[in-house]
Design goal:
9 helices; 10 strands
Length: about 260
């Protein structure tokens, strides 16, 4: 529902996901629409749909790697942290650090870690957990295991958690289970997504993701909150409004990230 094929509004997202039998939703800054400055109204809409707000996710054109944009990125982080604070136990998920400029790669890790850590401090003050969501998309800084080791070596685990995304990990890591296990203390909730052996997006259950193993590892993570946010990025997901209902069994979802609680 991030693509051109969806022309709806946040209320359409809530209806499609609720009709699909899901318990919650992760919504993004690009999807929140008219509710952006109206958390109380969004809370009313969620209640009417029978949904819980699992997380509010946002990214930045800076890729969180431009030093001159740190102040702006933290202002944005505070805005969405304050929004999430209106919803009990809702997290804020920050998008993957991304390369958007020239310069040494190591410097970009340091800048991203500074943004993540300072956003984590803002979250702590507001009583909202903050987590990072690495991706495998174009120009990501957080693609393979070495990248994960580098950023997690710089990010304070007491301030910033991790939202592992199975699809993105599978595209950049030889051993997803080892990555999940190594950093399981940082896991807050999980994005379930699938790819085939070549790394092309696949419907969940139709690719190489060992979903049961992922759930086993996450369930043993000390700070896992029980939410599985299910995403569908393949070309076979169907029309946006139909996908949540059509792929409930086995569970997998559209980009709006319908969620199930384990």
């Amino acid at each position: 529902m991030l693509g051109e094929g969806f022309a709806g509004c946040p209320d359409d997202l809530l209806k499609a996901i609720a009709d699909g039998g899901y318990a919650g939703i992760e919504i993004t800054d690009t999807m929140i629409g008219r509710y952006a400055d109206k958390p109380a109204e969004f809370a009313t809409a969620l209640k009417a749909s029978g949904l819980t707000l699992v997380s509010f996710a946002f990214g930045s054109k800076s890729g969180f790697t431009l030093k001159e944009k740190i102040g702006n990125d933290l202002e944005t982080a505070k805005r969405w942290i304050d929004f999430a604070a209106a919803f009990p136990d809702t997290l804020v998920s920050m998008g993957s650090a991304t390369v958007v400029s020239d310069g040494p790669r190591d410097d970009k890790f340091a800048i991203a870690a500074e943004v993540y850590n300072k956003a984590g401090e803002l979250g702590r003050k507001a009583g909202v957990q903050v987590a990072v969501h690495p991706s495998s998309h174009h120009n990501t800084l957080l693609f393979d295991r070495a990248d994960y080791d580098r950023i997690f070596g710089l990010v304070d685990p007491s301030l910033v958690g991790w939202v592992p995304d199975t699809g993105h990990i599978l595209r950049g890591h030889r051993n997803m289970a080892d990555t999940l296990t190594t950093y399981r203390d940082r896991i807050r909730y999980v994005h379930l997504k699938d790819v085939d052996a070549s790394g092309t997006w696949a419907m969940l259950g139709k690719g190489v993701c060992d979903t049961a193993a992922v759930i086993d590892i996450a369930s043993a993570a000390p700070r896992f909150n029980g939410w599985l946010v299910l995403e569908e990025e393949s070309e076979t997901g169907g029309p946006p409004r139909a996908a949540p209902r059509g792929t409930t069994h086995p569970p997998s979802q559209r980009h709006t990230a319908p969620s199930r609680r384990t």
